Amino acid sequence: MRDDMIKVVKIGGHIIDNSxxxxxxxxxxxxxxxxxxxxxxxxxxxxxxxSKLGVDAKMNAGRRITTDxxxxxxxxxxxxxxxxxxxxxxxxxxxxxxxxxxxxxxLILSEKRPVQAIDYGWVGDVKTTNxxxxxxxxxxxxxxxxxxxxxxxxxxxxxxxxxxxxxELAIAASRVGETELVYCFEKKGVxxxxxxxxxxxxxxxxxxxQLLKASGAIHTGMLPKLDNCxxxxxxxxNKVIIGNAAVINKPNALFTTISLT
Amino acid sequence: MRDDMIKVVKIGGHIIDNSxxxxxxxxxxxxxxxxxxxxxxxxxxxxxxxSKLGVDAKMNAGRRITTDxxxxxxxxxxxxxxxxxxxxxxxxxxxxxxxxxxxxxxLILSEKRPVQAIDYGWVGDVKTTNxxxxxxxxxxxxxxxxxxxxxxxxxxxxxxxxxxxxxELAIAASRVGETELVYCFEKKGVxxxxxxxxxxxxxxxxxxxQLLKASGAIHTGMLPKLDNCxxxxxxxxNKVIIGNAAVINKPNALFTTISLT
Lengths: 261, 261
What we know:
The structure is a homodimer.
Chain A: E1 6-11, H1 13-16, H2 19-31, E2 36-40, H3 45-52, E3 58-60, E4 63-65, H4 68-92, E5 97-100, E6 108-112, E7 124-129, H5 131-139, E8 143-146, E9 149-151, E10 157-159, H6 162-174, E11 179-184, E12 203-204, H7 206-215, H8 222-234, E13 239-243, E14 256-258
Parallel strand pairs in A: 1-2, 1-11, 2-8, 5-8, 11-13, 12-14
Antiparallel strand pairs in A: 3-4, 6-7, 9-10, 13-14
Helix pairs in contact in A: 3-4, 6-8
């Protein structure tokens, strides 16, 4: 990773759910030079909290709906517990972290997903991001740590996809300076063979992506992640990579570089 | 309230627990001119959440202990649910709010209360506050909204008294500019007769305080609040008042002014 670029790093639930993995990741993240942003999901904690509280997942046509109770739970778990534990840990590692939901300093404005075939409940799609906030954080040596809760500007919090937030914040960061977007997930990168963890495709451009989609080689969970990658590149992000947590500090780590051409 | 002073306002649980009262308060708070800070407790939500989760209050010699589970719950409720709902509401009222725990931007460093006769568990006593953070918030038109969770600098979150946090943040703000500290609670001020809501003592200086304490006229819950008031005044805060939510926008509201002499 280049020291002079803004790094926007998203970590998935597999890191949040494993305290040793999280600790190791945060140590490496704290050591990254230059301006940086961390985006986190909530892992299985929200599901466990729902279960403890006796709140069942509401489904509609196979899709999860965010009810009033779900929104309260994800706000507590993502913006409260997970975000503050990460911020406190980064502070102990001399990384001056500052937790954000999208409502804080109006960082991410979203709108409730319109009701069409399905009403997803309190789910938000990102409308605008605030690069001024990133800019003043970077100028003051602060590292934003962002959870996947946004707001609609009318006082309503909304549950929002963390991969999308990472992509949109990277686009906002690219208006401040050269930006690298890194998706850390449980695999070493995009795999040619989903059953072979070492079958990492080291580079995918937009033509490759269309071919891989057409051939069915890319599994469905990866498609929206790759859509976010290409969207970020089209809108100004300079570099996008997908890999596991090792990519941020292991020079020999395998990963997939996504590029437009 | 003077427009040119920094206002540090603490709201108690009676406002948090009543959505109409909270809405009315936030509308008035959003309209306050000049730099301002809001500090909130968690009200009864944390207790209700504990009860839903089957977590019983642990007591030691009549004092509440903050266990691992309690700390998780207060972090979720105070820093997550309550803080983000307030921040989103203030954003909708065109007040550019930014949520904080003490860990965020290292705003409030505390230390675990030393174990003496009682081990209070994960309770923190404030060590230092960061006026630079308040300063850059004010310079950027941001209104800090602070919950009563702090950190020890070693990655540990700590449950901290919200009245104390309000006092300490007012002291930090007084290093930035002239500061007024306002405690909003359920009464109209310090009462001469606890059974008469209109028996507000309009002014209390340090000598009065000693006399009121000696006579037993001040009920025990009020003593630490008044200690915080005098501590703030001694350490540079210019004005301290205690009243109900009306004090921030009703010119004719009764309240108690606390002064050193």
